[in-house]
Design a protein that fits this description.
- The chain is an alpha+beta fold.
- It is built from 10 helices and 12 strands.
- The chain has a 5-stranded mixed beta sheet.
- A hairpin with a 2-residue loop joins β1 and β2.
- α1 runs antiparallel to α2, α1 runs antiparallel to α4 and α8 runs antiparallel to α10.
- About 20% of the residues are buried.
């Protein structure tokens, strides 16, 4: 109960109401003390009237008047003459004097608190103004013990009443908050749980109905989120079905094209000049189609496995990539170079790093070869305190503007005619698995440069 929102609301409301009552209690007890002293002054004034009416009263009557007034003596100043009207023996000297005529609120509060914390019985002098303008001033002497006991009794009654009011107020506020706030919140939570059970079902989307403005805004925001999520899930389901269909079609199409590729071997052996001229184009087209099918099948498989990170000598990986691409570019005016420190070790999966670099270098080689002009491909690397940096650059014709817009998007970011755009999409996914980034730094008539960043720390770039 105490850990629930309603329980904590009940406890906090009680505490705050009690705090408010305590703040009211302090001036209230000061007011009670002031009224108590004024009452003693009025009683003393009334008792003095008996003496003023008859100068000859006996000692017993005088003592009775003082006891009824609750004072030891009464001094009345009339017409600038100070007169001791009633008097009796005081048990001890006067300890303090309080002038009630010009006392401020802060002074009254201070004196009341001091009286509560001082338990000893004292005799005090109290000065005030007579009622009905019956003189210039009246002063009495009295004990503080009855005053303090009366203040304590009044304070206890105030605190008990405050506690009762606090509990009742807290309970009523709790019922109101439960009706206007807690129940709608539970309703929203129930809608969320119901929607989570079947997010594809549009009937489970919340319908805003709260009367409280803030809750209504929350329900509308939740409705928007649920609507967008339901649409996204439906779109994802359709894409998954489409991807499955494309994978099946690509699989069968690859088998058909592979068979067609076998027949092209015989066609190339034909002596017909027209066939000789057309055969290479046919072979190239079929080869690209087979490659597209294989790439589509590879991309449609499960996600790439997590990289097995080890300390790899980067120069060895770069050398293997360049050697493979150098064989593929024989007969073309194309050169390869690298600027990788021999002893430079990077934390990476060697197989995945080879695939990424091979992809970048192969794309650069194909771009230069397709341009019909010579060029150079360079791989360089360096490191700093935070990361390893690997640059792959070429002097090719640069990437088309359309390719740069969707460079890392599957089937949209092909850098050359007939390309599927899957190579870079797979490469950026592999580098992201290392916690790093793959970015295109520049591309233009002077060439293209990609940069790989692998962080040295545990956090990703």
């Amino acid at each position: 109960m105490i850990n629930s929102l309603s329980g904590r609301l009940l406890v906090l409301t009680t505490i705050f109401v009690m705090l408010a009552e305590v703040l009211i209690f302090v001036p209230s007890i000061a007011r009670f003390r002031q009224d108590y002293l004024f009452n003693r002054l009025e009683r003393a004034q009334i008792a003095s009237l008996a003496l003023l009416a008859d100068d000859m009263i006996d000692n017993e009557l005088e003592e009775e008047l003082l006891q009824n007034a609750g004072v030891f003596n009464v001094v009345l100043r009339r017409d600038e003459v100070r007169q001791l009207v009633l008097a009796s023996k005081m048990p001890q000297p006067i300890a303090q004097t309080f002038d009630m005529r010009d006392a401020t609120a802060m002074v009254l509060i201070r004196d009341a608190i001091m009286r509560l914390v001082r338990p000893e019985n004292e005799v005090i002098r109290v000065i005030g103004a007579p009622v009905q303008q019956a003189g210039l001033l009246i002063e009495v002497t009295m004990e503080t013990a009855p005053l303090r006991m009366a203040m304590i009794d009044y304070g206890i009654r105030i605190l008990v009443l405050s506690a009762v009011i606090s509990v009742i107020t807290a309970f009523l506020l709790f019922l109101a908050m439960r009706a206007f706030l807690l129940k709608p919140i539970k309703g929203v939570v129930g809608h969320m749980q119901n929607y989570a059970a079947a997010p594809e079902d549009a009937r489970r989307i919340i319908k805003p109905s709260a009367g409280v403005t803030e809750l209504r805004e929350a329900e509308e925001a939740l409705k928007t989120l649920q609507t967008e999520l339901t649409q996204a899930l439906r779109q994802k389901d359709r894409l998954a079905q489409l991807g499955s269909a494309v994978s099946k079609i690509s699989h069968d199409l690859r088998n058909i094209l592979t068979s067609a590729q076998l027949f092209t071997d015989r066609i190339e052996a034909s002596e017909d000049p027209v066939v000789k001229r057309m055969a290479p184009k046919l072979v190239g087209s079929i080869t690209r189609a087979v490659h597209l099918c294989e790439s589509t099948l590879a991309f449609g498989k499960a996600e790439e496995p997590s990289p097995t990170l080890t300390m790899v000598r980067l120069a060895d990986v770069v050398e293997d990539v360049i050697d493979s691409e150098r064989l593929a570019s024989e007969g073309f005016d194309l050169s390869f170079s690298d600027d990788v420190p021999v002893n430079m070790l990077v934390r990476a999966d060697p197989e995945q790093m080879y695939r990424v670099l091979a992809n970048l270098v192969r794309n650069a080689r194909q771009a230069i070869v397709s341009s019909g002009t010579g060029g150079e491909i360079n791989v360089r690397a360096h490191e700093d305190d935070t990361a390893w940096w690997i640059d792959v650059s070429d002097t090719g014709p640069g990437l088309p503007a359309k390719a740069r817009e969707h460079l890392f998007t599957p089937f949209q970011g092909g850098a050359r005619k007939g390309g599927s755009g899957l190579g870079l999409a797979i490469s950026v996914e592999l580098i992201r698995g290392h916690g790093g980034t793959l970015e295109l730094l520049e591309s233009g008539p002077e060439g293209t440069r990609f940069c790989i960043c692998l962080p040295k720390g545990d956090g990703a770039v």
